[in-house]
């Protein structure tokens, strides 16, 4: 068994276990309006927390899908649904799924007044513009991107059951790790994930001597990179960029 991991859920982002200083920082960054708070937590959806930044959303989902554990997505995150901080309790993040621009966001044919919660109707996250139907029509949408990432993940069982090892990276803004699965035939499946947690482009030297002779193949585009040698392996990442590399034994 393994832990279920998530970016956000239906509850508040609890801050009970952090220091007062850390809690104050989180409030200042993510809950500037008092209505965004609940108890000692934050009641907001993922997209508003990251200012609806597509690059950050992709990086966070890449981490969710590649770290150990069973990834759990909260409904609406695949289309960057927003929240309604004017609703009470935790209902701000429990509004109807936005399926289409039709009546009640396509969620129900009931009278609007009969809905338990109203669909979002604000200019940025409102269902008239932001909905599954519109995302499906746009091949470059976040929804299509998430579907593609999940397809790649399913093609590589190493993400589900492989071991986890943090790799040495000469840049504190970069998180690099390897997922390894020992197969029954004695071979190994290895995927190396390199993530830029900074809003700036970052170069990084990775110490990969244990993989000398292996060739990284970028998983999303199937592009081969130079073979790994004795010297540190140099990679440059775009702001909030990431790579998933499948290591192919070229020895």
Structure description:
The protein has 6 helices and 13 strands. With 251 residues, the protein is an alpha+beta fold. A hairpin with a 5-residue loop joins strand 7 (174-182) and strand 8 (188-196). Helix 3 packs parallel to helix 5 (142-155). It is globular and about 65 Å long. The relative contact order is 0.12.
Name some characteristics of this structure.
single chain; 251 residues; alpha+beta; six-stranded antiparallel β-sheet; three-stranded antiparallel β-sheet; 6 helices
Question: Can I get a quick summary?
Answer:
By secondary structure, the chain is α+β, with helices and mostly antiparallel strands.
* Tally of helical runs: 6
Rg from alpha-carbon coordinates: 21 Å
Poorly predicted spans = none
Q: Please provide the count of β strands.
A: 13
Sheet with most strands: strand arrangement: 6-7-8-13-10-11
Shape: globular
How helix-rich are the residues, as a percent range? 10-25%
Beta-strand percentage?
Answer: 15-25%
What's the helix-strand series? EEHEEHHEHHHEEEEEEEE
Structural class: alpha+beta
């Amino acid at each position: 068994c393994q832990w279920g991991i998530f970016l956000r859920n239906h509850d508040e982002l609890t801050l009970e276990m952090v220091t007062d200083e850390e809690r104050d920082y989180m409030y200042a960054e993510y809950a500037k309006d008092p209505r965004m708070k609940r108890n000692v937590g934050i009641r907001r959806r993922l997209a508003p927390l990251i200012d609806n930044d597509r690059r950050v959303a992709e990086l966070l989902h890449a981490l969710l899908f590649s770290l150990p554990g069973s990834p759990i997505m909260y409904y609406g995150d695949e289309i960057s649904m927003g929240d309604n901080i004017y609703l009470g309790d935790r209902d701000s993040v429990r509004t109807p799924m936005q399926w289409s621009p039709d009546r009640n966001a396509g969620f129900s044919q009931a009278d609007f007044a009969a809905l338990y919660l109203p669909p979002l109707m604000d200019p940025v996250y409102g269902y008239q513009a932001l909905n599954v139907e519109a995302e499906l029509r746009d091949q470059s949408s976040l929804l299509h991107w998430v579907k593609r990432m999940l397809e790649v993940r399913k093609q590589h069982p190493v993400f589900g059951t492989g071991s986890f090892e943090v790799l040495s990276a000469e840049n504190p803004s970069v998180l690099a790790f390897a997922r390894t699965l020992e197969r029954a035939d004695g071979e190994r499946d290895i995927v190396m994930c390199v993530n830029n947690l900074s809003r700036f482009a970052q170069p990084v030297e990775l110490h990969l001597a244990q993989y000398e002779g292996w060739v990284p193949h970028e998983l999303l585009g199937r592009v081969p990179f130079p073979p790994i040698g004795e010297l540190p392996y140099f990679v440059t990442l775009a702001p909030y960029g990431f790579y998933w590399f499948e290591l192919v034994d070229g020895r």
